[in-house]
## 1
Amino acid sequence: MLSRDEDILKAAEDWRKAGRGVALATVVETWGSAPRPVGSNLVIDNEGNFLGSVSGGCVEGAVVTEAIDVIDSGKPKMLEFGVADEQAWNVGLSCGGTIRVYVEKVG
Amino acid sequence: MKLEILNTLNAERAARRAVAVVTDIASGEQRLVKAADVAKDPLADLLEKRLRMAKSGMEETPKGNVFLTIHVPSPQLVIAGAVHISQVLGPIAKLLDYDVTIVDPRTAFASAERFPDVKVVAEWPDVALPSLNVDHYTAFVAVTHDPKIDDPALIHALERDCFYIGALGSRKTHGRRLERLKAAGIRDDQLARIHAPIGLNIGAVSPAEIAVSIMAEITQRLRQKADKAEAA
């Protein structure tokens, strides 16, 4: 794990202890040349602040939106992104992979 | 993830201990498995393998799909001896993501000029090593040829259960070293853990080639099960 991943989990703990609603997103599967490896984390709070990355910037926006739902409902979600699709191409990534991201509430 | 699990996870990582989180994808249920408890976990084999490879991932189990989050401390390399081999070994190990520290009390050797990119501690092993957090995720190499430096360094490495311990020197030199360490009270099964002559046998001649053979042996010890590595 990269040292910045450690910071992300520490941030998740600190944010939650500070009373914020927090979700943790984790890359659980990748196919093709995905930008971030399995195990990569993104931590999100209920106001949409986030730290870390699950795709190097390509699908973070969508993950943050879903994560706010997860914080509200408390139910984990599995998200799947084909990072070779139109949207990914538009934001400048042509890696041609697919990733699955597990989003869970912290608390 | 329950805050309690996240708490423990961060505490274990801060203490440089390996730890895993098992997540049942269908139900969202989670449990944390500390490295010390892996053997008695129902998924012991899978966890052991993934901890060794430091690789998180999905696994199919009789009870459904689980995601194993694996956290392993970053490996470090401690080199006793600021010698020519170390000048190459340090940068190679850094490329392989090791935190590298070189210990040598001889200030003429342990200079920043000779080691611009690596942490160097110009102290005797008994002074330098205790604060370096030498542990199971440490590879330890003794390359000074000087028993006054190498011997106490090796004893420290054995006490701290480093995953790899290697010492430079011919079979004859190592034979004399073993006699000294034995006289110092080190058990035979511990002495057998020291790799000497150091490095994989690839016919290395130059200091750089010897450094490659050492790093290859360290990698083998890190990634392969002990019995497989022995057979190689």
Note: Chain B has nine helices and ten strands.
## 2
Amino acid sequence: MSDRILGGTCLLLSMLYIYFAAQTQVGFISDPMGPKAFPIAVGVVLALGALYTLFKPDPEPLWPRLGRLGEIVFAVVVMVAYTYALPEFGFVVSTSFAAGLLSWRLGAGPVAASIAGVAIAVGIFVIFRLVLKLSLAIGPWGF
Amino acid sequence: MDILASLGDGFAVALTWQNLGLALIGCFLGTIIGALPGLGPANGVAILIPLAFTLGLPATPALILLTSVYFGAMYGGRISSILLNIPGDEPAMMTTLDGYPMTQKGQAGEALALSGVASFVGAFFATWGLVFLAPQLVKVALLFGPAEYFALFTLAFATLGGIAARNQAKAVIAAALGLAIAMVGVDHQTGVPRLTFGEIHLYEGIHFLIAIVGLFAISEVFLFLEHPNGSAPGDAKVKLNRLTAPLSMLKETRGSMARGTVIGFLSGVLPGAGASLGSFVAYTVEKRLKDKEGTFGKGDPRGVAAPEAGNNAAAGGSLVPMLALGVPGSGTTAVMLAMLMALNITPGPLLFTQQPEVVWGLIAALFIGNVMLLLLNVPMVGLFVRVLQVPTKYLLPAVAMISFVGIYGLSGSTFDLLVMIIFGVGGYLLRKLDVPLVPVILGILLGNEMEKNLRRALTISDGDLSILWGSPIAITIWTLAILGFVAPLLVGRLLRPKKDATVAP
């Protein structure tokens, strides 16, 4: 079933892709092939692969249980929130929270996870910002 | 003896204190990356590229740093294979078969030392192979026109899809997805935006580093979240009695190392095969030839030496097509190509003629790195063993955060970070569905180049498609491409190691 969904999704994607590629505005000066042909060809190849997978699926992969999928969704939410938090709260604070939460969900106890989060954030800040002078997100407090 | 003279110049480039220092750091980091389960050479190098890039290192030192990491990871992969029965990376999978039984017999120290020496032998001779083979390939490649290059890119996808994937249709999907992503952005020849949906961030296209870090590193975090408590590697409470291999053991296994090296190098040169195939074939051949008493799989030193020499030789071998043709043969070399592209270096025959100092400096760095790795790995293996005990629950958050730091450093844009997360989720789904990630990466990396060559060829012929198979070289490449895609369907079951989705690429 998973493979059929994969095939179906890719087929749909390829159709949309070909449609949007065909919408490309072409100027009046162009090489013989133009900017549309290659993306359309790629879309066709994708459709062929998708069709095969749709009709000849592999055995079902081992999906995690629903609760575990929830963990993954949670991790995605943490990461997205992290990207938005970076410019607001600066690198160290955002990273402490994000790393701590991830480490907690990966099985560390709450106390250990918070320590790990802060340690990771401060460690990265010291190595990459103070030693290697890399640009990190600077929040209102300058770190 | 031009080659040796060029190599001498290369050593002159590489032998500065700064470069030696970078090589040492790279080897050290690489060994750790290789040893840690969940961080393979491909995603290890992928995380480090944006960092090396934003640090503003010039091309040659950056290359030296990252190739040292690559080779270090190849060495490091064996440590957890031998001690914990968990391969640190995919090519090290075959080392578990005899390496772990040796540990159970109390010979962990011997196995580590022996595999260190075997890694050195494989990598050292493969680098010599690279020195002599790459310039020959360059001579052929200088005859290539756009039509031949287009065929060559197709060959890379075909063999990669044919050999590396278990299901060819999924390899096709993967390659098409990668190419489709590469097309996003302003068309280089006519200047019209394609598939950007008016989103200004997409005009420059999606940066390949964002895709690579997302697909490899971020998806790894999701894979580990599937298992409660992060399936931490068990305690490595192994007593290391001695850290050297007895001379008799080295003598006994020298044939295995030699065979492993040759087989590994050849399978590395084949596009699409890479180190995993090298170690797999090396082990299989060794077992067929030498397993007279049925000792393989029960801790036979030859079963450790052959695949380790094989995978390190393949790592060297796979640099041949990458440097000489600009077409990577495996996941890790695809990441290496990304690194070269990030540094504004286009590998291929012109690199050898126009920037010989980069090529030969890199090759000299490989030799230096190998010697360093041997020196680091044999006496200091105890230190690396201790690093293995860092539990995944602390390691993976750190890896994820470093990935964010690297991508943020590229542009400082939230949009790029979101795209990276999307790639992470996509990479997780594709890995679960057994769609190989390497063709996706290759598609993103090579897509524009492939299209450019096709369009150039058709401009030359004024739209006549027959130019694509208009020369004997082109016909040869097309034939190889078809063979490379179809042949594994017939004999593939023999060549393909069983894959484990939880092992880092």
Note: Residues 66-131 of chain A form one domain.
